[in-house]
Amino acid sequence: xxxxxxxxxxxxxxxxxxxxxxxxxxxxxxxxxxSPRSWDEFxxxxxxxxxxxxxxxxxxxxxxxxxxxxxxxxxxxxAGVLDLLDALGLETVDLAGHHTGGVVALEVAAAAPARVxxxxxxxxxxxDAAARARRKDRPAVDExxxxxxxxxxxxxxxxxxxxxxxxRPDLLTRFVRDALAVWPDVEAGHRAVSAYRMEERIGLVGxxxxxxxxxxxxxxxxxxxxxxxxxxxxxxAVIEGGMVPLxxxxxxxxxxxxxxxx
Length: 262
Hints:
This protein is of the alpha/beta class.
């Protein structure tokens, strides 16, 4: 039997063209990537979810091959997702996001609760005044100064090495490719997360939510329980040994999503 391939398209929206990948047919599930990634973060996830769903992974506005937005903010990214749903004729979807994508997914569910049936928040931080204060003086993760000899590319690689499995340079290569696609605004998505006032929005989320934590993710794993505690209807799941790159735990993540949406 021939396995259907992932397909790609562009949707015309009021904020510009949104690039997306999709796989499969059935109830739609939309997947939102972290910063500064693209749909490629879900390359391995799409075929697994596509066995039962129409799995759609867009490049958020400002990232990948989508239009460059005038504003980098969680509200703007979320509005771009809602524009995409309109363009694709999708009234209600299941929604999942990883890191920055999880924050965006939460804002979509808060801004348009009738359009999100179920929500999956993977490695998603809980952001309140205390978290914003901690992030204010935290060194930038990916911001490096461009150098004539190209050594800034090695610096960008090295800054991420500790958060990636040592035997998977292919994952870091994919990260660097996506980071260069948004250069020099490689840190803009992280700044948007750090400015988001989640504590004012999270109470508007009314749908059932699964909060997924990767145990070896130093950034987000400590927030797994606090995030779930602030949601009205939330369950938690842990991917043991999971790290920052979603591709590393694509199989376990995809099957958690399938079980939750079932």
